[in-house]
């Protein structure tokens, strides 16, 4: 049966490369920090210093650049994710503020509508006077409770 097997070509043969020692990695790291791209002379010099083939040095540099790029992308992604979370939280806060302001506006509209209805009571006479005074008090109370319409209860100043 072995006669039917294809002979292994050089492409399929595996070479067992030795791992780099910590000292070799430190030397590569320090050279990489100085210059992340290798020219042929530095590659040959480094390979001689480390006692490894120049191709192994080139591959280490290529892998190191790829790792740095991935780390940079991950850091950028995390920063954007944090920024998105902050924007979503701010949006929720603003939506709550809009709802609060709409409720205040509806309350003021109700008081104004009631005030406009009571002003038509002038034709009837003094019986409307006490209800008109109550409406004025309600309107004033609504305005007082609003205090500064451009500052929210949590102290956020819209124009500050």
Automatic annotation (TrEMBL):
What protein am I looking at?
Homeobox-leucine zipper protein
Q: Where is the composition biased (Basic residues)?
A: 8-19
The terms describing its cellular component in GO are:
nucleus
Record-stated family = Belongs to the HD-ZIP homeobox family. Class I subfamily.
Q: Where is the Homeobox domain?
A: 11-71
Q: Which residues form a coiled coil?
A: 63-111
Q: In terms of one coarse class, where is the protein primarily found?
A: nucleus
Functional summary from the UniProt entry: Transcription factor.
Q: Sorted alphabetically, which InterPro entries does this protein's record hold?
A: HD (IPR001356), HDZip_class_I_plant (IPR045224), Homeobox_CS (IPR017970), Homeodomain-like_sf (IPR009057)
List the molecular function annotations (GO) for this entry: DNA-binding transcription factor activity, RNA polymerase II-specific; sequence-specific DNA binding
Domain of life from the UniProt record: Eukaryota
State its location(s). Answer: Nucleus
Q: Which positions make up the DNA-binding region?
A: 13-72
UniProt entry tagged with the keyword Methyltransferase: no
The record's annotation in Pfam families points to:
Homeodomain
Q: Which GO terms describe its biological process?
A: positive regulation of DNA-templated transcription
- Recite the UniProt keywords alphabetically: Coiled coil, DNA-binding, Homeobox, Nucleus, Transcription, Transcription regulation
Q: Where is the region Disordered?
A: 1-21
